[in-house]
Amino acid sequence: MANLFVTLRYQLAVTLLALAPLATRAQLSSPQIKRDKKPPKENVEWLWQYGPPPADGRETALVLDNRFRPFLAQYLTAPQTFWGNPKTGYKTLDETALDFLSVPDKVIADENRYLSITGCVFRFCPARGLLWVDLGLPHPLIAFAAIDWIKDSKTPNEPGAEYTLWVFPNHPIDPDHIPAALIHSVARWTAQPPTGSTVIQQIKNTILVDPDGTPHQIKPADIGANTFTRPEPEQKAQP
User: Fold this and answer.
1) Is there a domain that residue 238 lies in?
2) Is 117 part of any domain?
3) Helix, strand and coil in the chain, % to nearest 5
């Protein structure tokens, strides 16, 4: 009887050893861990409804959309030190953007992918804002640009007034590889005078700021400032 008991224990041990590799393979093939799973695309497609056509009238509706302020707060988080007071405190970047877009100007769609949203500060339109959005990426690239008057230069209604262009992308941008669509948008924007003026603003300084607040001084032309040129009108041949 004892010999039979020993034999049964031996056979059970052999069986368990034989099944062990199968159990291990089953655990390794478990679908619980999906390393190749891609993160879901961030939903900012609602912005597109405000791109033209029609070309006019939709910028105000965009700024008043209940989703607009949370959108700014989510994507514009870099520290800024040009808008506000060092004694009483600077505004957050999303609050700054809202100030610079508080008087809506235009919403322009490009290439069925990019949006350029412009505006200016209430009662001081020389302080202008541009919100540029690339909707073609899983993690949208968003850049807020602000034209800020250099107060020790001439007054904004004079041709010699000078300005600083601040640019805040939500992802780091290599200063040597700025997206061409952003350059085009800035060029087109800075080629237009502020509302109520005929004077093109001269960008003297341009500061590209990383999301962590690291500033990079670049040439204004590197991001398109004051580079937009219009083709000369064709002249009729003299008879």
Assistant:
1) no
2) yes
3) 30, 25, 45
